[in-house]
Write a structure and sequence with these properties.
The chain contains 15 helices and 16 strands. With 426 residues, it is an alpha+beta fold. It is globular, with a radius of gyration of 21 Å. The termini are far apart.
Length: 426
């Protein structure tokens, strides 16, 4: 990186503006290793990655007109897991570094503030961190494949670019769409993020999806829509029902063929209006498949990018001081940011590691924090023969998780449930 600071990419602009004392948009990648973690070796691995991944070793700064990212003053220190996953990342911590590295027994975790990157960019960083740790601890060097890079190389310019600016269309797409049903519950009095994990054999999930002619993500999204529709029916009279939609991130790197390490994803709200009819699971699968085929195409994605990028460069927006920009961004986010979906489903898909690493990494997990107004969120990752579905919540009720995993079991998919220290077969 030629300069010690970066502008926030277009997707990142909203996050510091709408954060509050209880909510920060963070997500987490973790790996369970075969042996207990050596903190000293892990710290050295974190230090070794800094020259090659400068767009990660950044802290959040505040300017007169915009937030910005600048190089950290010192490499972040690894620390023991000290609380529940995705503990609130304070403004003070963001000003030191926008990611944290944690360990507990055999587990290594990295939690990212979303201003740095999205899940695809974070996965590249995380894979390289694990590879360097394995090299330092066991002397096993992984080949440069499956996302691993040469740490001796200089960072490539494309990795540091805000790809939204390059791929924006000329004409913006309207953000108008119907407001969706909102999941609700009693807030946890301690503000704790609870996690319930369903562990599934990947081949069982693939077989269930294949039997319906859809992808795993389509199947899981359809099951989630079916679950939320049932919850709405249990709590609301039919004349008050609203559309049921899942918010699905789209990795734009595959759409526009770029290799940025920074944020480059957009979300689509995929769903149905249950007032029109009672949808079967097969119909929900077809709806997901058809809506994705229609919307996740380059020309429409470019128009969606334009809807976000063009206002950023409007003369009045550029000239406004930061405190006015924050007010405007909060108003926009409150109006369209989360009202159009019920829950995120972020599926990282099947993650592969070089064969030399597989004997040291037993399991991978992805968690995304609850949103500004969503009380629940869902993240999925498959590795080896396991698929881990992590549903987080900041409310006391477990109705969503119970109904969702019960539905999977009724499809013939065996689910092992983990919740804190408890584990059981479903």
């Amino acid at each position: 990186m030629n300069r010690p600071w970066l502008r926030l990419d277009n997707a990142a602009l909203i996050f510091p503006a709408v954060r509050n004392s209880r909510w920060v948009n963070t997500f987490r990648l973790s790996a369970d290793l075969k042996d207990p973690v050596d903190p000293g070796v892990l710290q050295q691995a974190v230090e070794d990655l800094m020259p090659r991944f400068p767009s990660f070793y950044l802290r959040l700064g505040t300017g007169l007109f915009w937030y910005f990212l600048e190089e950290v003053k010192e490499v972040p220190k690894v620390r023991p897991e000290y609380a529940y996953p995705l503990t609130h990342m304070s403004v003070k911590e963001q000003r030191r570094c926008c990611f944290r590295v944690l360990y507990h027994e055999k587990r290594v975790a990295v939690e990212f503030f979303h201003v740095l990157t999205d899940g695809s960019g974070a996965l590249i960083f995380f894979k390289n961190l694990l590879a360097q740790y394995i090299w330092l601890r066991y002397g096993e060097a992984a080949p440069l494949e499956e996302g691993l890079v040469d740490l001796k190389e200089e960072p490539r310019e494309i990795e540091l670019k805000d790809a939204f600016q390059r791929c924006s269309g000329q004409y913006p797409m309207s953000r108008r769409e119907p407001t969706a049903y909102r999941l609700k519950g009693r807030p946890d009095p301690g503000g704790i993020i609870h996690v319930i994990t369903g562990i599934i054999k990947t081949e069982d999930l693939l077989a269930a999806a294949k039997a319906r002619g859809v992808t795993v993500n389509a199947l899981l999204s359809a099951v989630m829509m079916d679950t939320i529709a049932e919850i709405q029916a249990a709590h609301m009279p039919r004349h008050l029902w609203k559309p049921v939609k899942v918010t699905v991130p789209i990795n734009l790197r595959t759409v526009f063929q770029t290799e940025t390490f920074r944020n480059f994803s957009l979300v689509l709200n995929i769903g149905v209006d249950p007032r029109l009819k009672d949808y079967s699971l097969e119909e929900l699968c077809r709806e997901y498949k058809n809506q994705m085929a229609l919307e996740a195409v380059p020309e429409k994605m470019a128009a969606r990018i334009a809807a976000n990028v063009l206002p950023q460069w409007a003369p009045l927006m550029r000239a406004a001081p930061l405190f006015l920009k924050k007010i405007a961004l909060k108003m926009i986010y409150n109006r369209v940011g989360e009202r159009k979906g019920c829950i995120n489903i972020s599926n990282m898909g099947r993650v592969k590691l070089p064969a030399v690493m597989e004997s040291y990494v037993e399991r991978l997990d992805l968690m995304i924090g609850v949103q500004y107004t969503y009380p629940n969120n869902c993240a999925v990752v498959s590795y080896g023969d396991k698929t881990c579905i992590n549903i987080v919540r900041n409310i006391q009720e477990t109705e969503l998780e119970r109904r969702f995993f019960t539905r999977l079991v009724k499809l013939g998919i065996s689910v092992r449930i983990e919740s804190g220290e408890k584990e059981e077969e479903a």
